Amino acid sequence: MCSDNLDRLLALVGCQNEGSGALDDIEVISQARRSLEAVHLIRLGARATLVCQLTGLGRKTVSDLYSRLTGSPPPRGQLPFTDSWYLCSNLRMLHANVVWQLYQHFEALGHSEAGLVIHVYQTYLQITEVPLLTLTRAYFVPRLISINAWFKHACTHCGLQYIGPLGNYPSMCPACVEYFRHRCRSCGAEIESRRLGRRKTHCQQCHEERYRTRKKVRQASHVNP
């Protein structure tokens, strides 16, 4: 960002403190950093409410930044407050878990809260061809953990940790669920998809082997009651 734009941003923030005297160097740097973080968040699609929450800037300042950067007022709408949107699709859950893993990585680097969100979402955009989560949706993923709506689980297939709600949620992580959508859960062989009927979970060979095994168990139980 050029020095002229930075001066304008500092002027926007400084207008809130007119009459309070000259700011010391530390406060100037802090205000500049928060202003630049707000610019990044706006360009990544964050709503004004979230920008204010993450940076501590006033609503008027953020609205002015929106107008200068986009030429239009900030979009309206509430922040997410339930996990229903994520649970509608396993792919959404997979992307939510990718974002969660990124948060785990970047949290250890000591970024500010706004800086953490920026780094996570920018990386998410770089590693996904078709991103499903907006910045606001990505920000809400770790919140679901903090409010005890989602918990850590261990995948029964790959053993890796993933996040999701309790209850009837699948015991496999979203990545394994996608992998086995058209593959045998026993041998991994590809299963031909079909439009109608119940989705197959095992290939014909494994299905027959499982049937023979169950038949032997039933026969043994009748012989030794």
Structure explained in plain terms:
- This protein has a two-stranded antiparallel sheet.
- The protein has helices at 3-14, 25-43, 48-55, 59-70, 84-87, 90-107, 113-127, 135-146, 174-179, 204-223; strands at 151-154, 161-164.
- It contains ten helices and two strands.
- The chain starts with a helix and ends with a helix.
- It is mainly alpha-helical and 225 residues long.
- The chain folds into three domains: 3-70; 90-181, no CATH class; 194-223.
- Helix 1 packs across helix 2, helix 3 (48-55) packs across helix 4 (59-70) and helix 6 (90-107) packs across helix 8 (135-146).
Kindly summarize this structure in a few lines.
α1 packs across α2, α2 (25-43) crosses α4 (59-70) and α6 (90-107) crosses α7. The chain has a two-stranded antiparallel sheet.
